[in-house]
């Protein structure tokens, strides 16, 4: 009954704590650390309860031992009184012999009483010893579970950190994906292409303006030649066309 009460209470407490942690878990490390602390505190509660149970058992054992010892002492007194009565009766002193026989009977009655008390408490002591053994076994099991929990905590934290690092790497790689037009690199490339296009546009514009200037010079040259030929006609001089071979 004590075993079921102690570990039942601790089990209920642990389940409540675990459920509460899982419901509000945001940081895995904090959750696992809290779980280890709760389980450690539960073990401390179990140790305290078991120590109290053991203490009560030792009191029972002490009482039982005192009853056994008292029964033995009353037995010795009864024997001594009986022997004294026999000695007195041999001498013819029956009156005192009867008194010592009565004392022996009283001692025997006390012996029987102490023996009955010792017998009555013996099954309880045996049961409590079994309970204490089971409690110790259960406590050792809890301590082993705590070590497993600590090991599992380290494993889960390592896995959590690995997963976190993988996610960070994945996000970093994704952010510089050269094939992704929405990435930072893609947007920068688009900006460079626009700058290149602007420069090409300026160059094309500058080139077209230069061509226009040369065309204008050619037109001026043609007009000058026409004027010269017209002046020659008016003066009666022969007009010769310039032919380039």
Tell me about this structure:
- With 245 residues, the chain is an all-alpha fold.
- It is 89% helix and 0% strand.
- It has helices at residues 2-23, 28-90, 94-175, 184-235.
- The termini are far apart.
- The model has no long low-confidence stretch (mean pLDDT 79).
Q: Can you give the mean pLDDT? A: 79
Instruction: Enumerate the spans where pLDDT stays under 50 for 5 or more consecutive residues.
Output: none
Backbone structural class: mainly alpha
> How many helices in DSSP terms?
4
Helix content: over 70%
For the largest beta-sheet, the strand count, sense and barrel status come to: none
Q: Determine Rg (CA atoms, Å).
A: 57 Å
Number of strands: 0
Shape designation: rod-shaped
> How far apart lie the N and C ends?
129 Å
Measured by DSSP, the beta-strand proportion falls in: under 5%
- Element string (H = helix, E = strand): HHHH
